[in-house]
Amino acid sequence: MTVESAPDADATAPEAPRQVDGRAALDEFVADNDVVLADFYADWCGPCQMLEPVVETLAAETEAAVAKVDVDANQQLAGAYGVRGVPTLVLFADGEQVEEVVGVQGEDQLRALIGRYAE
Catalytic positions, please? Predict the structure, then answer.
């Protein structure tokens, strides 16, 4: 699956989380956006479901683009990033992984994390 990007992808991040499948799609999404929050989740994970509205709000209200990665469908990708538990959030800035947090995080904590890297 490829990630569709708007013609002005560099100007604004997508306002809704994007489902990403596979390493190539995640790499492309990270390359197309300055700051990316990748949410490694599982449908069966209660804490992941609790985090969902926070992730959606961050996608809509911050400079970060949000990628959703289903760890059950993307086990190799999750393994490549050392994901051992869900939810795991990986933050990319300028194409590089800069932060990783495991477990449910508060919206304020995640906004502050994104704010350190967003312009």
Answer: 45, 48
Q: Which numeric CATH code is attached to 18-115?
A: 3.40.30.10
Q: What is the model's pTM?
A: 0.88
Tens digit of pLDDT at every position of the chain (119 positions):
444 443 344 446 789 999 999 999 999 999 999 999 999 999 999 999 999 999 999 999 999 999 999 999 999 999 999 999 999 999 999 999 999 999 999 999 999 999 999 87
Tokens matching residue 50: 């609790």
Query: What burial class does residue 112 get, using C-beta atoms within 10 Å of its C-beta: 0-12 exposed, 13-18 middle, 19+ buried?
Result: exposed
Round to whole Å and give the CA distance between 24 and 15.
Answer: 21
Boundaries of every domain in the chain: 18-115
